[in-house]
Design goal:
386 residues, mainly alpha, 15 helices
């Protein structure tokens, strides 16, 4: 344990986590008005990161469970770091939700006031099950009485739950009939596909890091195989997005045209084009060639682009849905934020959704990411064998 605490990455992460905790105490005291969220955009950076972490987590566990379910023996070699990564990411996702609640002292109402007709309740239940499966998976893989038969049984539950956890997260958005940008049946497949490529890309980056630190050795042939699987997942992800864009554009409805205009040329266009060009096209063109998949620097670069691209996808998915109000005409909607109130009556009204994360949001979010990095580093140092 002493060696873990002396790890520079753990120490730096700890400092950033403390900064995030201090800023969260300020947010808790002052209320969510200190964030950039307002009446036009009620979900912001925290829930964007929640979607992102859930996808990263699901992707890692799908890879780990596939080793037992589909008999891909070579993937068993990376099952343990994949499960560790999955566990850390789902915990970070839960932290994002708790921070977004604002009044965390009322968190017990999540248990006593569940509305089972709400996708939010479904998501809470399936994420709790997912966390339990991760813990069981880790226990059966690392205990002194490690049993491969029990690991195989858990993996049979892990794969469908990993797919379900991201599908249910997608349904939170996809079942919102009042939000044209979200209300589509293909949103769940898009979420699952992006979970696969982002989770797999993060696993590759984690394995590179562990190998560089001498904590876990992964054969180059396995890196190459995982890179080939990542290339396939990228292609599937891009195909689903293309299907959705074509369907929206071909119908030619006024609402669909507004969504496409925002996505292609509006406020969320930078996120969309970064994901399409640098998060999908460039990594695919790199990994589609076998010689490139054998080049670890290229595989690492492609993996970084995929992770960044999926984060951008979470941004454009979230904020395109908030860009248009469901009411028209002046004076619009009162934003209700602390900044708008301080600016006077003229700044309180808006005709279009606006959002920008504030410094407290950024510091808290950096703290969450640091928590994930520090926790994965510490757990790896304790549980992984060279």
């Amino acid at each position: 344990m002493a060696s873990v605490m002396k790890n520079p990455l753990v120490l730096v992460s700890g400092v950033l986590v403390l900064a995030g905790l201090g800023t969260y105490a300020y947010q808790l005291a002052m209320g969510l008005g200190v964030t950039g969220m307002n009446n036009s955009t009620s979900w912001g950076l925290y829930l964007t990161c929640f979607m992102f972490f859930v996808g990263l987590s699901a992707g890692g566990l799908i890879v780990a469970s596939s080793a037992s379910i589909f008999g891909i023996k070579k993937y068993k070699a990376v099952a343990l770091p994949a499960v560790l990564l999955s566990l850390v990411c789902i915990c970070c996702a839960g932290v994002c939700v708790l921070i977004d609640l604002g009044g965390i002292q009322r968190v017990w109402r999540m248990l006593t006031g569940l509305n089972f007709m709400s996708p939010l309740a479904w998501d809470m239940i399936v994420i709790a099950c997912y966390l339990v499966i991760n813990l069981l998976y880790l226990y059966f893989m690392t205990s002194k009485k490690a049993d491969s038969a029990k690991v195989a049984v858990v993996s049979r539950f892990a794969l469908p739950v990993a797919i379900l956890v991201h599908s249910v997260t997608a349904w939170i958005f996809g079942l919102e009939i009042a939000r044209e940008a979200w209300n589509t049946a293909i949103l769940a497949p898009i979420f699952v596909a992006s979970a696969l490529d982002s989770g797999l890309a993060l696993l590759l980056l984690a394995l590179f890091g562990l190998k560089a630190k001498g904590m876990f050795e992964t054969p180059q042939a396995l890196f190459t195989s995982l890179a080939g699987l990542l290339c396939t997942c990228i292609a599937i992800d891009g195909y689903f997005i293309g299907c959705e864009l074509l369907t929206t554009a071909y119908n030619g409805t006024e609402e669909g045209a507004a969504v496409l205009n925002t996505l292609l040329f509006g406020s969320t266009a930078p996120f969309f084009w970064f994901e399409v060009v640098f998060g999908l096209a460039v990594p695919f063109l790199i990994l589609v060639f076998a010689k490139n998949r054998a080049n670890m620097k290229l595989v690492g670069a492609a993996s970084v682009l995929v992770v960044l691209g999926v984060f951008c996808k979470r941004c454009w998915l979230m904020f395109t849905g908030f860009s248009a109000f469901n009411v028209t005409g002046a004076p619009g909607v009162t934003l209700g934020s602390t900044a708008a109130q301080a600016g006077g009556a003229a700044d309180m009204w808006a005709l279009a959704g606006t959002y920008a994360p504030t410094l407290p949001e950024v510091v808290i979010t950096v703290g969450i990411f640091a928590l994930g990095v520090g926790a994965f580093t510490a757990l790896s140092q304790v549980l992984l064998k060279k």
